[in-house]
C-alpha cells in the first residue's frame, strides 16, 4: 500500500492507499483501504463515456479510495459525492485534496433513501463477476432497482474485461416500480 499514480484518459490521479484503517469490530483492514481492479477498469470505461458525465451529479457508494468518483470529477461532472463510511472518509478527503477536486467533490456518509442523500444523474456499478454477483444484483431488483448490464468497451483485447461487468443501477422511484426488470448477460450468455 502507499501512493499510486493512475493515468485515466491522459490525466493523472493520485490515490493514497491506507494501511491503518481497520474495522473497529473485527480489527481487520477495511477492503476500501486499497485500490481494486474493478475501480481501475470502471474508471477507464468512464473515460470512454465522458460526454455522459459532463455536468452531471454522480455518487460513488462505498467509495473506498474514490477513484471512480474522482475520475467523474476529472471528466467534468458538476457534483460528485463520495460515500465515506467505515473509516474511509479521511483517506477519501486526502485523495480529493491531493487531486485538487474539492470544489466539485464532497465526502460524506450516505444513507440510501434518506432525504439528505440528494438526487444523482448517474449510478454505475463496476464489478468483477463472481458467482454471487448476479445474486446481489437480483437482491437490488427485489428492492425496486432496475439493473442494466452495459457493454464492455470495444477493442479491449488484453482479457481484463473477461471477468468484469459494468451495470447501470436505476434507483426506485416513489409510485413507480422499476425493479420489475433485470437486463443482464449472465456468465456464458454473451
UniProtKB/TrEMBL annotation:
Pfam families: Methyltransf_16 (PF10294). SUPFAM superfamilies: S-adenosyl-L-methionine-dependent methyltransferases (SSF53335). Gene3D superfamilies: Vaccinia Virus protein VP39. This is Protein N-lysine methyltransferase METTL21A. The keyword Plastid does not apply. One of its GO terms (biological process) is methylation. InterPro entries: Methyltransf_16 (IPR019410), SAM-dependent_MTases_sf (IPR029063). GO terms for molecular function: methyltransferase activity. The gene is METTL21A. Keywords: Methyltransferase, Transferase.
Amino acid at each position: 500500500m502507499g501512493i499510486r499514480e493512475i493515468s485515466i484518459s491522459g490525466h493523472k490521479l493520485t490515490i493514497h492507499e491506507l494501511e491503518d484503517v481497520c474495522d473497529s469490530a473485527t480489527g481487520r483492514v477495511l477492503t476500501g483501504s486499497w485500490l481494486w481492479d474493478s475501480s481501475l477498469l470502471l474508471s477507464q470505461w468512464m473515460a470512454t463515456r465522458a460526454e455522459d458525465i459532463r455536468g452531471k451529479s454522480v455518487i460513488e457508494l462505498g467509495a473506498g479510495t474514490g477513484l471512480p468518483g474522482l475520475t467523474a470529477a476529472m471528466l467534468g461532472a458538476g457534483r460528485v459525492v463520495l460515500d465515506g463510511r467505515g473509516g474511509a472518509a479521511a483517506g477519501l478527503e486526502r485523495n480529493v485534496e491531493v487531486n485538487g477536486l474539492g470544489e466539485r467533490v464532497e465526502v460524506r456518509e450516505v444513507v440510501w433513501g434518506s432525504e439528505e442523500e440528494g438526487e444523482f444523474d448517474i449510478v454505475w456499478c463496476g464489478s468483477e463477476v463472481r458467482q454471487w454477483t448476479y445474486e446481489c444484483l437480483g437482491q437490488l431488483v427485489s428492492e425496486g432497482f432496475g439493473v442494466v448490464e452495459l457493454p464492455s468497451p470495444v477493442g479491449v483485447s488484453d482479457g481484463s474485461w473477461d471477468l468484469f461487468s459494468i451495470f447501470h443501477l436505476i434507483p426506485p422511484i416513489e409510485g413507480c416500480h422499476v425493479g420489475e426488470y433485470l437486463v443482464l448477460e449472465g456468465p456464458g450468455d454473451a
